[in-house]
Design goal:
Helix content: 40-55%
Shape: elongated
Radius of gyration: 19 Å
């Protein structure tokens, strides 16, 4: 379990992590991270991971468009 603190600064909420939590997450200063809400807890990923995920999603959409007939047939079985 990771510990963090939420602090209000002007019109923003800031999340403060202790040094040990940051070391576990392998997070560096000014790095963008994304937190995904999951039923079994949260998962974080880097901005670079998000770029890779976006490329993979575009490829998946392309395949689904090109093979829509085949995918429909498989869904019927």
């Amino acid at each position: 379990m990771l510990e963090f603190r939420v602090k209000k600064i002007a019109n923003f909420l800031d999340v403060l992590f202790p040094k040990l939590s940051l070391e576990k997450l392998k997070v560096k200063a000014s790095e963008t991270r994304y937190l995904t809400d999951l039923n079994d807890g949260g998962r974080h990923r880097s901005a670079r991971d998000n770029d890779i995920l976006a490329v993979q999603a575009l490829e998946a959409e392309k395949i689904m468009r090109e093979d829509s007939g085949l995918l429909r047939e498989l869904a019927r079985r």
